[in-house]
Amino acid sequence: MKIAILSRKASLYSTNRLKEAGEARGHEVHVIDYLRCYMNITSHKPSIIFQGKSLTGIDAVIPRIGASRTFYGTAVVRQFEMMDVFPANESQGISRSRDKLRCLQLLSREGIGLPVTAFAHSTKDVEGVISTVGGAPLIVKLLEGTQGIGVVLCETKKAAESVIEAFRGLDANILAQEFIKEAGGMDIRCFVVGGKVIAAMKRQGAEGEFRSNIHRGGSAEKIKITPEERSTATRAAKAMGLNVAGVDLLRSNHGPVVMEVNSSPGLEGIENSTGIDVAGKVIDFLEKNAKPGNTKDRAKG
Does pLDDT of 78 surpass 80? Predict the structure, then answer.
């Protein structure tokens, strides 16, 4: 197969591992900076041009789209779909997962476990927002934040009021969520490929840090997940329409709850902590599914 990895940098761990895994299986793999592509949107013969040449003969693409480049990145993926190229994740699924509110609404519709969540923009009923999620302590998030940025733990009602007022001053959309205290700063990243959890790791926040992101100093180790956690992760990925996803769960007193569904999950933490060849599993999935006419997003919303 001829595989294109849509990534800004070939040297990134995840991009490099996917390229290695593809080449180890005898495939021709190219890393393409999707921001340097441009598209010829023509009836019957759509094309993508990169470095002055039309990209032809590609069997599959692996999107590694940065959160800040979602709009253009998904447009490139969609153009490949128009050319009947099979994507590891389709443009619709990526867009759904990047919109935190849309993601939560779709998960809620499927009856998947979630923290109690309130969404607001310019509401003056700050007290009502806080009481909706059970009062303090609570988490307040900017809708557009990534990697733990724009996420604040408010331990008192007064602190929550101040943070929400400040975010309102930024003309920002706000998510307020119940604080799952029993999780103890620990979450579980389930790596889903083709409807199956192929690896799982426990991420523990640094001392005094409620966010477990490895980017913020958290640690990771292999974990054995329960059947309910496995089912929750696969259902969440399916609800988004994602073939490859990192589903982040918290263990709450009322079962596993989904915090986020990531459409471009990093490979470094999960491979190093579990010893599983995750990149190879992604290539295996492409080998079984990459064929013309197999690009059909059936998820709704």
Answer: yes
